[in-house]
Structures are given as C-alpha cells and as structure tokens.
Amino acid sequence: MKYSMLLVIGLFTGIFGAPLNVIRQGTAEVT
Fold first, then answer.
1. How does DSSP assign 1-31, residue by residue?
2. Considering Cα of 21, then 22, then 25, then 27, what sign does the dihedral take?
3. At residue 4, does pLDDT exceed 90?
4. Distance CA 14, CA 6 (A)
5. Whose CA is closest to 21, among 31, 29, 10?
6. What confidence score (pLDDT) does residue 13 get?
7. Tens digits of residue pLDDT in 5-26
8. Opening angle at CA 17, ends 6 and 22, nearest 5
9. Could you give the CA distance from residue 5 to residue 25 in angstroms, rounded to a whole number?
10. How far apart are CA 8 and CA 15, in angstroms?
11. Has residue 1 got a pLDDT over 80?
12. How far apart are CA 11 and CA 8, in angstroms?
C-alpha cells in the first residue's frame, strides 16, 4: 500500500514537476 502511494506521488511530481518549476521561476521574476 505504501509503495503504491509513493509510486503515485512520484508519477504526480513527474507530470506536474516541470510546469511547477516554470511557474516558480515566473513568480520569482515577477517579485
């Protein structure tokens, strides 16, 4: 159960990791 949870979290960060990084850089430039 715990392993599958980690797998889901890894998949989630894999999909949304890059866009989040771009957004973070964008907000950093704004401020």
1. -HHHHHHHHHHHHHHHHHHHHHHHHHHHHH-
2. negative
3. yes
4. 12
5. 29
6. 87
7. 999 998 988 888 888 888 888 8
8. 165
9. 28
10. 11
11. no
12. 5
pLDDT value of position 14: 85
Q: Please report where in the chains the tokens 């957004």 appear, as a residue.
A: 23
Here the tokens at position 1 are 């159960």
The residue written with tokens 């430039």 in the block is 29
Can you give the pTM of this predicted structure? 0.43
Task: Extract the tokens encoding 7.
Answer: 């797998």
| Residue whose tokens read 């159960």 | 1
